[in-house]
Specification:
Layout (H helix, E strand, L loop, with lengths): L2 H48 L1 E2 L3 H10 L3 H9 L1 H10 L3 E5 L5 E6 L3 E13 L4 E14 L5 E8 L2
Antiparallel strand pairs: 1-2, 2-4, 3-4, 4-5, 5-6
Helix pairs in contact: 1-2, 2-3, 2-4
Length: 157
């Protein structure tokens, strides 16, 4: 085999390796970007879900509905009047915060994600005050426009 063929073969293999590495890096960058976006939406949804204020509880419920999709959206929207009535009647103020490291990506695919979110909740009403800590699993579905929407939320601890 001639030296020229060997050099050409080595260069072709090196080029193929560079192209493959570029593809892997781009896929990982997209996954990282999607994962970050899913975590942000999950944190917003959990914070909104656990935060209510009797001054305008409808606004709080509507914010969660806006971040939602599918059956979860329909079921939560159907409970709107009950939530508003209860929060208003009891003069509730519920404030939720997610710690800085309180969200972790559990699963990611091109069309769905699951994010575990820790949330600290401080509640006051006309009769009591309390602090609670919840752990939730947020299921997300990627929409046609690339946005993540909540398709389910469950308390896990």
């Amino acid at each position: 085999m001639s030296r020229r063929k060997i050099v050409t073969g080595v260069l072709a293999l090196a080029l193929a390796a560079l192209v493959a590495a570029n593809v892997v890096v781009r896929i990982r960058a997209t996954d990282d970007e999607d994962g970050r976006a899913a975590r942000v939406v999950a944190q917003q949804a959990v914070t909104g879900f656990f935060s209510l204020n009797h001054a305008d509880p409808g606004k709080d419920v509507d914010a969660v509905v806006a971040l939602s999709t599918g059956t979860f959206k329909k079921e939560y929207a159907a409970k709107r009047s009950d939530i508003v009535e209860s929060v208003t009647k009891n003069e509730m103020v519920v404030k939720a915060t997610v710690p800085g490291d309180g969200a972790a990506l559990e699963y990611l695919s091109p069309t769905s994600a699951r994010v575990l979110v820790a949330v600290d909740v401080h509640s006051t009403s006309k009769s009591e005050s309390s602090d609670s800590r919840y752990r939730t699993r947020v299921r997300l579905a990627k929409q046609d426009d690339g946005a993540w929407k909540v398709s389910g939320l469950e308390q896990i601890g």
